[in-house]
Amino acid sequence: MGTKTEGKGTAGEVSGKGMAGRDEFIREITLRICSSLEIKESLHSAFEYLKEHVPLEALVLVIIDERLGAIRRIERASENDALPPHLIPLPEGMPQKIAARNYSEPFIVDIEKDEILGALAPIAEFEGNTHLIVPLRIRGELIGWLVLRASGEGRFGKEHLELAGCLAEPFAIALANALAHEEVLRYQAILLDDKRFLNWELHGDAEDGIIGGNTGLRNVMEMVRQVAPLNNTVLILGETGTGKELIANAIHFSSPRRNGPFITVNCGALPENLIDSELFGHEKGAFTGAVAENRGRFERADGGTIFLDEIGELPSNAQVRLLRVLQNREVERVGGKRPIPVDIRVIAATHRNLQSMVVEGSFREDLWYRLSGFPIMVPPVRQRKEDVPALTRHFVTVRSRDLGIGAPPSIAPGALQRLMEYDWPGNVRELENLVERELILHRGGPLTFGTILPSSEQKNMTLAAGNGSSIYPLNLDEANAVHITEVLKLAKGKIDGPGGAAAMLGINPSTLRSRLDKLGISYRRRDREN
Q1: In what helix (H) or strand (E) does residue 305 lie, and over which residues does it extend?
Q2: Beta strands in 238-279 (DSSP E)
Q3: Up-side HSE of residue 425: CA atoms within 13 Å toward CB?
Q4: pLDDT of residue 502
Q5: Which of 224, 254, 401, 484 has the most CB atoms less than 10 A away?
Q6: What are the distances in angstroms from CA 27 to CA 24, 35, 52, 100, 160?
Q7: Residue 264 above 80 pLDDT?
Q8: Angle at 304 between CA 298 and CA 307, to 5 degrees
Q9: Res. 288 pLDDT band, cuts 50 70 90
Q10: Residue 50: how many CB atoms within 10 A of its CB?
């Protein structure tokens, strides 16, 4: 049984040297395995020393990872790379059976006598090799295993078992240190990931206040003040571009959760095949490409608020999982085996009519009832036109800074009145974009918004389109021709220079002439006069 290997000696020789030889062996192996926090380096050092005393092809540290339901290899040192996989999945109930067996002393694997190890033999490649396993314990608690592997059968004997007993304590300390170091690195990665993610996700506009909070949005802000201190789910309703996310920001930053994360999810922008992974996370190896575990948006929002924008775009399977989160405050990662509790507040928003979707069967009725306990309706700009002047001044200031304009230009008399007369089908977002275009085209003097504010004729086209009977042609070239012709009329046939059609359209004059020729539009003044 004590087969001799090439090297300085055998286990029998170590034992034969008496207590001094054994003490020297223990001292040397302890120094080597505890020499570094990099377990790979220290294990290789111990491997090189051990193979001088025992027949050894590989030295492996493994743990039972209950979270993954598998045996996980922490590190290995070997003569070659032909080793079992990094993860060995365990059958249902196997971790409990292993714990109940209470392995305490080193033993040589006998798959004929040990049914537990026999069940793992095909995956762990026990057959045709000899394995000596040393249980590793800290304060009586089993934390992992040291596996010594030699090619062929019957390679380890009683003297090797006695020697392996000296390995348990130093390798248990090394494994405990490695696991603690692994945990520290994992939390460090989580913190760095959170920092990057939250820098992207968080918005600092909340402290600037809500424009119109004391006028057109007065009732909305009163509801925000009522619901912010609570922990209930909120549903924000309103047309696209009304500023629903700002209202969600205001709720979060006025709540006791203000110091926690505020995670925004655009449900309509998530690919359907990635929704579960993005929202609920996934475990390493859960699917092809899942090379590491990933915390979903709900886990990232733990201790704070998650804002589900365009909730009506969620597919039915994601609606089922969301309902479970709202009911149990737990998420289950894709490929995970246990629920993860989350302390979150959910704010949802949509521009769609969810009640109609419930009737149509495209939105779950039970989810609708969960979400609609406290609805907040954000009115469109056309119903709060008294906010337009304040919004315009705000966007002029902000966009001037973003565009690098030193001093924000003033607004010409009468311009704000003209802005208030427009119905703003695109709401606040349309107003913001219009201000930005005006600043880009600005050539000095007060802002008049005369060149880019939709004319009454265009406004009528927009209203007609809203009624489902657009007078614009459906062909794209014909629609471009109509629009460019209208701009030419506003420019009185002028192409170049300030106030010219090219400047109004934001394109190069030569590009405009080329498009006019392509569309067959006459633009020479003499032609227009004939």
Answers
A1: strand 305-309
A2: 262-266
A3: 12
A4: 83
A5: 224
A6: 5, 12, 15, 33, 18
A7: yes
A8: 60
A9: low
A10: 24
Highest averaged pLDDT of the listed ranges 35-49, 76-90, 423-437: 423-437
pLDDT band at 244 (very low <50, low <70, confident <90, very high): very high
pLDDT of residue 11: 60
* Cβ burial, residue 288 (10 Å; 0-12/13-18/19+): exposed
For residue 294, CA distances in Å to 89, 270, 278, 288, 500 come to 20, 16, 8, 14, 54
DSSP 351: S
How does DSSP assign 113-140, residue by residue?
A: T-HHHHHHHHHHT-TTEEEEEEEEEETT
Higher-confidence position of 215 and 521: 215
Q: Can you tell me the distance from the alpha carbon of 56 to that of 48, in angstroms, rounded to the nearest whole number?
A: 10
Q: Which residues contact 216 (CB under 8 A, 6 or more apart)?
A: 379, 383, 384, 385, 386, 387
C-alpha separations of 22 from 11, 53, 159, 427 in Å? 10, 12, 12, 83
Could you confirm whether domain 204-379 is CATH 3.40.50.10860? no
Is this structure's pTM higher than 0.70? no
Burial class of residue 396 in the structure, from the number of CB atoms within 10 Å of its CB (0-12 exposed, 13-18 middle, 19+ buried):
buried
Which residue intervals of 73-166 are DSSP H helices?
Answer: 94-101, 115-124, 158-164
488-491 CB contacts, 8 Å cutoff, 24+ apart: 488/521, 488/523, 490/451, 490/455
CATH class of the 11-181 domain in this structure = alpha beta
CA–CA distance, 47 with 32 (Å, rounded to integer): 9
Domain boundaries, the chain: 11-181, 204-379, 385-529
Q: Which band of pLDDT confidence, cut at 50, 70 and 90, is reported for residue 460?
A: very low
Q: Determine the length of the chain.
A: 530
What tens digit of pLDDT does each residue of 344-388 get?
A: 999 999 999 999 999 999 999 999 999 988 999 999 999 999 999
